[in-house]
Input
Amino acid sequence: MAESSSALTEAVFYILLSLGQPLHGYGIMQRTEELSGGRVKLAAGTLYGALTTLQDKGWIEPAGGEGRRKSYRITPDGRAAARAELARLRELTHNGETIIGGWTE
Amino acid sequence: MAESSSALTEAVFYILLSLGQPLHGYGIMQRTEELSGGRVKLAAGTLYGALTTLQDKGWIEPAGGEGRRKSYRITPDGRAAARAELARLRELTHNGETIIGGWTE
DNA sequence: CTATATACATCGGAAACCGATATAACGAAA
DNA sequence: TTTCGTTATATCGGTTTCCGATGTATATAG
Output
């Protein structure tokens, strides 16, 4: 790939989408499954690994936590990354529609 | 992720889109860059690795080759995979628009 | 003749995902 | 009250995929 707006993985995109409001890890799992209509189920390893990576990137940050839960919130950089990804997805979808639309039918 | 329609990488999606007509490896590189408006540039390792993987999956197949070029064509399974990916992209784009559209603004 | 573009291929390293495993607290049912 | 399912976080090893570098070779343009 190697380009300006590098692709986000589906897991990361849904994690960011899930954090419109502060939410804890397990809640992100559930919200992702809900948002995707049950299609995307984050594995524990994927989620908690990504939470660390995303904090290192500054796209999410801790937002306190009640009891044993650890909540996170999305940062401005995180929102920017999600918007950039949406733009990439739109372009990709558009290209796919144009080209695949011209196949046999 | 772990789901019914597993995500294709951008590299693989563009390789499939490039093969509307039989084309050789290097041509796929160029066509991908062209189709993506210069944004996606396939690294050699990515391309030739993916060509092997995609043949193993039965999504592309050899289509002869003039001289030192090796051409490939997409198979019906390959087309199905591209269409499934397009559906996934549409859903993802739609979800992204809905949710991100509700942010700050 | 030499540099650039074409063309294929492999290698090692880095990400990212997954499933399994571990730990632990909670609430409900038996 | 004990046991089971859910909530909740975390780590580990293995697999896949990508990337950039490197290698080889031919063709073409300057």
Q: What stands out?
A: Chain A is about 55% helix and 10% strand. The first strand of chain A starts at residue 23 and ends at 24. Residues 5 and 87 of chain A are 9 Å apart (CA to CA).
